[in-house]
């Protein structure tokens, strides 16, 4: 791990976004509440929060951070299920890894819940893909970076 003992504790905030490409019929089923496993948006939101809190378990050199807030928002287009996760904490190190892990977990959860609709006749996922997972904003001590 990197030594952060000499750094001050300041407000850290990061926002990450990503997209899951799905079939239009799958997106219609999500909107209509017709997914067998339940409400994709709400379960994906819980997955994002759980993943944010467990980020050091996934990334072995990531510092445990006392997460103070997590916001997970979702929207759907005709071709994508999109997630945006914002994480905030007063810490000595940034929270961008937490935001990225939360975004990835939310999208993977949506994939898991809808995979039965996405498979082709051979059991493959030719149209389904995680796309563009990235940090879109990072704030340290109140000033955007």
Q: How do you describe this structure in short?
A:
With 145 residues, this protein is α+β, with helices and mostly antiparallel strands. The chain is built from four helices and five strands, in the order βαααββαββ. α2 (40-53) runs antiparallel to α4 (96-118).
Q: How is this structure best described in words?
A:
This protein has 145 residues and is an alpha+beta fold. The protein has a single domain (10-139), classed as Molybdopterin cofactor biosynthesis C (MoaC) domain (Alpha-Beta Plaits). Helices cover 34% and strands 32% of the residues. The chain is built from four helices and five strands; from the N terminus they run E-H-H-H-E-E-H-E-E. The chain has helices spanning 24-31, 40-53, 55-58, 96-118; strands spanning 10-21, 69-76, 80-91, 129-140, 143-144. Strands 2-3-1-4-5 form a five-stranded antiparallel beta sheet, with helices on one face. The longest helix is centred in the C-terminal third of the chain and has 23 residues, at 96-118. It is elongated, with a radius of gyration of 17 Å. The two termini are 23 Å apart. The model has no long low-confidence stretch (mean pLDDT 96).
Number of helices: 4
Q: Tell me the Rg in angstroms.
A: 17 Å
Order of neighbouring strands in the sheet with most strands: 2-3-1-4-5
| Count of the separate structural domains | 1
Shape: elongated
Extract low-pLDDT stretches. none
Determine the structural class based on helices, strands and strand pairing.
alpha+beta
Mean pLDDT across residues:
96
CATH class: Alpha Beta
CATH 4th-level superfamily: Molybdopterin cofactor biosynthesis C (MoaC) domain
Give helix % range. 25-40%
One letter per element, helices H and strands E, the order comes to EHHHEEHEE
